Here is the input.
Amino acid sequence: MQMIEMMKRKMFGRSSEQADPDQGTFEGLLSDWDKLNGESAVPPTETEKIEYERRRKTQNNNLNGRVKIPEHLERVDKFIDIPDSEKICPVTGEALVCIGEDITEQLACEPGRLYVIRYRRPKYVSPDRRKGNIVGVLTALLPESPIERCKADVSLITQIIINKYCDHIPLTRQEGIFAREQIGIPVSTMADWCRESANVLKPLHQLLKDTVLSCDYINADDTRELFLQKNGEGAKKGRMWIYVANMMKLPDNKDGPIENIKLMFFDFSQDWNEEHPLKILKNYKGFFQSDAYPGFKNAAKLKDITAIGCWCHSRRKFLDALKAGVKDAKIFVTLINILYRIEHHIGELKKKNVQDDVLLALRKKRALRVFKKFFKKVNSTPALPKSLLGKALTYARNQEESLKRYVENLRFKPDNNVAENFIRPLCVGRNNYLFMGSEGGGRTAAILYSFIGSYEYLKDVLSRINSLPHSRLHELLPHNWQKLRQQK
Here is the structure.
């Protein structure tokens, strides 16, 4: 019955994991815990009612599409004047005097504009070439291109990549978009451009991978990706992996704030074997946060890796049991919600410039109190191992040490959501183009997914990477490129 109820809720119910709005405060959540545990609630504090009046708003700028128009957009002036015949005063017969003008702005849009760049390069030869002084024909070099002898400018290649891997528009749909503009670009040609661009980016992808794995705190997650097999046996379940570095970068000036930089890279495999994360993390040293996938769990057992658990995954399992009608699960959901309210409170204090050591002490004091109650209840609650509640209890029991570890440093988060949020858009693409064309297509996607932060960035990288020496390749990494851009 529990499984049937859970499936019904997954199909027809809300998928949000948002906490109960009635449990909005730390004290309120603790009070709920006391009630559920048979203890007396915290005595209510004295309050007083304060009444006041305020002036009612007379305008709502969000009505009727009254959006704020950004100042940086190009302005195209269109003059609308009255006819000359109406510029005469009907009383005196004299010409009307202009006293100013009304200016009305509206956002406008044109479909993507395609155009042809025609490079015109003068050719030069020696004036006395007929006398035997042969220097050949001199002409300027063409700009660097990521693909040799390609008919597409880097701007078009970049747009196709962004459309496919960022906006999740399959190449077949892009072919139709170009066809409406009377431009024929076959799917196979665009696929070749994507593959060749990924090949050019391979050295930078390896450098990005090394940079991420040099950080002492990373998050990891994975999702399935179907790809077609060469032998014609249909689609096979591959895996896309993501590794996110949480880097603390000191400011250029001593008075500036410490930057929290997130770098990530994707990796593709043709199966869900645990050897893949072990291969990636075999030389890693630091803190590693993930879910309880066996491959990640085994990687976290390596000598120099310290595992951090994910409270979001733990809460999700208790929520499944609660939604299936298991009332005993509410106690655990309530306690986990308290942990998140503590994090929210610490975040508010941090905005007020409270010292980190004070915040860390506060987090430990409050969180450890919740840990004690939570795991005491976990170890004392009976449940069948295969039931929804039993699975949730087993997960929490097996992950106890790693779940507690996030309180040791303010940099650590209670969950693995940063990796989940970065990998979630891939599910949209999977629904659109269904599968990768091959295993090679999956590896191409992994490289391109790692560099689609913005159109401007990818276009600049593809334009420069062939001409940049390997010793300067680090300048094209996302965080270094942003810094160079700001300096310009």
